[in-house]
Amino acid sequence: MSDLTPQSETPTPTTDKITQAARETIYLCNFRVSVDGEWLCLRELNDISLTPDPEPAHEDPKDPIAIERLNLMNMAKLSIKGLIESALNLGRTLDSDYAPLQQFFVVMEHCLKHGLKTKKTFLGQNKSFWGALELVEKLTPEAGEITASVKDLPGLKTPLGRGRAWLRLALMQKKLSDYMKTIINRKDLLSEFYEPNALMMEEEGAVIAGLLVGLNVIDANLCMKGEDLDSQVGVIDFSMYLKDGGHSSKSAEGDGQITAILDQKNYVEELNRHLSASVNNLQAKVDALEKSNTKLTEELAVANNRIITLQEDVERVKEESSYQLESRKALRSDSAADGQALGETRKQLKEETLLRLDVEKELEVQIGMKQEMELSMKMLEKDICEKQDALVELRQQLEDLRTINQQLSHKSQSADASSKQKSDVIARLEEKINQMSGTVKQLESSEKHLVKQARNLNSAAGKLLHLQQ
Asked: Which value, in Å, is the radius of gyration of the alpha carbons in the chain?
């Protein structure tokens, strides 16, 4: 039986938090969840006659496992639709505290837990969907990055916590739908972890995987460091999907406008902070580039000095080689010269020639380095100019955002003032109504008194007429 089935009435050793959450949970196997437009309808199975819904013909419509699968699929539809609509209306990146996003992960956790096989370990029985999610790394190599990140996260001690972290990372990567389709298509591998009638093994799992494609339009930034994913209690909050009429349209519109203004103000302040940080980073990069430019200029000056020194050495070697050639001619003309001195002169000439070749090669290398340094200097100057232009544009955008922030603050103040004026007018109207009700009561009492006096006068007149007769 799935984790969503009703538990027995025998008390189990759990914490008070889990016990309270279990009392507030409506178990899905006792109800049929259907979608009426965009709202949730709950009907107890004992009070209605079941007719076959669009379910497979081979399944019994009263089978609790089939009802659980259908209910989970409908809950997933509502959760995904509500999350997409609320995120698009919000118009900014979602974080971990966003309630529809939290409910989506709770519903996905129930879907993945449905029909899990119980594995016996040394510590007892264990049911976790982390083993099924690890299959994605084998089937899709690009999912290995998520699995490695989950294993490297500090503070995760249980497979359940790792599975929850994996779902959040896959949503941020916008690959959750692709990964779910990958493992659902390999039912031969999933059969190791799930019962044959589990949601992941039936067509409802493929439907949920298709619905997850719509979440690719959502941008989420979820920080999991410091978040306790191991001991969270996943309880579906049905109140988010049930109709609740009875709110005043005017007050709702006013609250919506004030909320929108405050959201815009918070967004502008957050954007202002990001732009300030970007300006500081760019300024630091410009300073680093200026330092590197100064260093390269010094190195270029040293290289120029080295080139001048090498050129002087080349001139000296040329003079020495010309002197050696002249001495060689003199030695050739003098046939009586000593043969030993001639050999030493030839050896010295060869050494001087090799030295000259080495000096020329080093000179060519230094000239090439000088050209590369000049090219890098030009590129650095161009990069600095571009960074300065970007810095000017960012500062202009920062000024514009500050102006918008001031305007929004004025609007919020005017909205607060108007709301106070309206509340004062309402208080005065209520005071006038109380005064008018007191006046009406006085008039009613005076009217009764007058009626009584008229009756007395009528009776007296009747008596006078009777006496006159």
From this structure: 44
Q: Indicate if the pLDDT at residue 375 is higher than 50.
A: yes
Contact by Cβ (8 Å): 328, 352: no
The pTM (predicted TM-score) of the whole model is: 0.45
Contact 401, 275 (CB under 8 A): yes
3-class DSSP assignment, residue 455? helix
CATH architecture for the domain at 65-243: Up-down Bundle (1.20)
Nearest CA-CA partner of 74 in 41, 103, 30: 41
Query: Reduced to 3 states, what is the DSSP secondary structure of residue 145?
Result: helix
Residue pair 259/133 in contact (Cβ under 8 Å)? The answer is no
Residue that the structure tokens 């967004």 belong to: 267
Q: Which helix H or strand E contains 264, and what residues bound it?
A: helix 249-333
Q: What ranges in 128-239 are assigned the alpha helix state H?
A: 130-139, 144-152, 159-172, 176-184, 187-190, 203-211
Evaluated on CA atoms 148, 72, 234, 219, the torsion sign reads: positive
**Sign, Cα dihedral of 151, 154, 155, 157:** positive
Q: Is the dihedral of CA 180, 184, 189, 192 positive or negative?
A: positive
Distance CA 135, CA 194 (A): 13
Contact present, 65 and 2 (Cβ < 8 Å): yes
pLDDT digits (tens, 9 = 90+) for 295-339: 888 888 888 888 888 888 888 888 888 888 887 777 666 655 566
CB 129 within 8 A of CB 161: no
Query: If pLDDT is split at 50, 70 and 90, which confidence band does 429 have?
Result: very high
Length of the chain: 469
Sequence spans of domains, the chain:
65-243
